[in-house]
Amino acid sequence: MVGLLLALALQAPVAVDPGQHAPPARPDAQGLLPINVDFFSMAAETGGDFYFWAPGEFAGSHLQLPLDGEEVVLAYGRFDAPRRRVDIPVEAGVRELTVFAGAQRKDRAVLVRPDGAVVADGAGDARLQTFRHMTLATVRNPVAGTWRLEFDGAGMYSISAHVRPGEADDAPSVGRFAFVEMRGRPGHEGWFPLERLPRAGETVECEVEVDGYATGVQVATVTEDGRPLGVLPMDARDDERREYSGRCVVPSVPFRVVVTGRDAHGQTFRRIERGLRSAAPR
Fold first, then answer.
1. Are 157 and 103 spatial neighbours (Cβ–Cβ below 8 Å)?
2. Average pLDDT of 178-188?
3. Both 105 and 146 in a single domain?
4. Cα–Cα distance, 99 to 158 (Å, whole number)
5. What's phi and psi for 3, nearest 5 deg?
6. CATH number of the domain within which 85 lies
7. What is the mean pLDDT of the chain?
8. Are 260 and 223 members of one domain?
9. Buried b (16+ CB within 10 A) or exposed e, 156-184
């Protein structure tokens, strides 16, 4: 949320002293909207949406932000090809799906349903808010399955997908991932969060809690732009399969932790942590 608000404030009209005039933010020869890279990096580190406002667009945008949900996809980077395709797993019972795609140059942003149909504005269950450099799609009671974002453009981009999970007692819920160590008085030892920053390449004990019904739970890491880094070998610590633990190798590049599994209906769920993690140098 902090990253979203700061990014939003950056791209909104800027107050200036009397007699001064803010320079217009004109796209360059490639159609790339100038942005403040420091604020983009802050949004990437905190998991906020970076809003790519064209000059004068915000004032008449009538932007409606959907209710916040749980993170399924977070990706920030620079297009290394004209298109990014992002799969978005949605489990059963989800009440709302929100997908944001913004870039310095947006050529095409399309959200595709699991059956292959394109989400169109005016559909009974969907609302699209489309701007020159951004698209924000909100779908109520989305069907379970793998949705897909097809995003064409250039320059820096920000992509996110959030869900408002169902209210069923067995709906999967992922707790905080942590690197841990054994501490405590003799006879009263236990696992506690690591009190230091783990080093790149170090093998550290780690744990995560998954509530609700979940099978096939897998924990992995991804880069800042959402690309896979590796799987963290973790097993259930108790018979109820709520706490998962293992020995994890700390990535050498900034990363996020992703938890996937299947819900009580056999549908895939996915959660990604909001904050970007960085290891201490070796």
1. yes
2. 84
3. yes
4. 11
5. -60, -40
6. 2.60.120.380
7. 88
8. yes
9. bbbbbbbbbbbeeeebbebeebbbbeeee
Q: How far apart are CA 147 and CA 277, in angstroms?
A: 27
Q: How far apart are CA 211 and CA 252, in angstroms?
A: 30
Total tally of structural domains belonging to the chain: 2
Task: Clarify whether residues 179 and 262 are in a common domain.
Answer: yes
Domain closes at, from 138, 164, 190:
164
Question: What would the mean pLDDT of 161-181 be, rounded to a whole number?
Answer: 94
Strands (DSSP E) found in 94-202: 96-112, 126-130, 134-140, 145-164, 173-174, 178-183, 190-193
* CB-based contact 209:257 (threshold 8 Å): no
User: In the predicted model, what is the mean pLDDT of residues 121-145?
Assistant: 94
Whether residues 160 and 21 fall in one domain: yes
Rounded (10°) CA dihedral 136, 139, 145, 151? -20
Residue 2 DSSP symbol: H
Domain ranges, residue 78: 2-164
CA distance 52 to 34: 9
Tokens for 147, please give them.
Answer: 């949705």
User: The whole model's pTM is what?
Assistant: 0.86
Label residue 15 by pLDDT band (50, 70, 90): very low
Give pLDDT, residue 4: 42
* Cα 204 to the center of its chain, rounded Å: 25
The three-class DSSP label of residue 39 is: helix
The residue to which tokens 């820096």 are assigned: 156
Verify that 6 and 119 share a domain, yes or no: yes
Secondary structure of residue 229 in the 3-state scheme = strand
Residue 230 lies in a domain: yes
Tokens of 18: 């009397």
Region class of 2: left (phi > 0), else alpha (psi between -120 and 50), else beta:
alpha
Provide the 10 A C-beta neighbour count for residue 93: 20
- Indicate whether 229 and 251 sit together in one domain: yes
Instruction: Give the separation between CA 35 and CA 40, rounded to whole angstroms.
Output: 8
Measured torsion, CA atoms of residues 139, 71, 254, 148, in degrees rounded to the nearest 10: -30
